[in-house]
Amino acid sequence: MYDEEERRGEIVDVHGNITNAERLDEFLSHINSGVEDRIRITTYTIEGDPINYDFTFDGQYVKYKYDNSRDKFGIKNVRSTTCMKMSKLTSHTMVEYKLDECFGENKEIGEQFSFVLNLDR
User: Fold this and answer.
1) Please, is 23 exposed, middle or buried when counting C-beta atoms within 10 Å of its C-beta (0-12, 13-18, 19+)?
2) 99 touches 83 (CB < 8 A)
3) What domain range is 73 assigned to?
4) Rounded Cα–Cα distance for residues 18 and 96 (Å)
5) From what superkingdom does this record's organism come (predicted)?
6) How far, in Å, CA of 23 to CA of 41, rounded?
7) DSSP codes of every residue in 15-74
8) How large is the average pLDDT for residues 12-16?
């Protein structure tokens, strides 16, 4: 079920088992270099439903879209916002990616975004 997303280069998180995580660093590097890029993170609920996090860097801003419309047990919600940048915080046990300086409609979803890679695994 998750192989198709992995083949497309999406970052896939199945209950903490993450594939294609290196794309986050590539995306961050492209942001810092001003190179346009896009990535998708797909996480899966306990029931196996996908939740998509789409990021598009247009050379100036990071556009972020949260989409849980395929989650059969959640309240359907598709929202977007724009942020100035993405940051990476590293400790000895984890790496966390966050969006910074979000603005406009729905800016709170950008400010709340966090994707964590546990280095203990």
Assistant:
1) middle
2) yes
3) 3-118
4) 13
5) Bacteria
6) 10
7) TTEEESTHHHHHHHHHHHHT--EEEEEEEE-TTS-EEEEEEEE-SS-EEEEEE-TT-TTS
8) 90
- Amino acid 61 reads Y
Give the count of domains, the chain.
Answer: 1
CA distance 7 to 18: 13
Instruction: Give 100's contacts (C-beta < 8 A, 6+ positions apart).
Output: 83, 84, 85, 86, 87
Nearest to 24 by CA among 35, 8, 34, 37: 37
CA 34/CA 58 separation, integer angstroms: 8
Model pLDDT for residues 48-101, shown as the tens digit of each residue:
899 999 999 999 999 999 999 888 877 788 999 999 999 999 999 999 999 999
d(Cα 19, Cα 65) in Å, to the nearest integer?
20
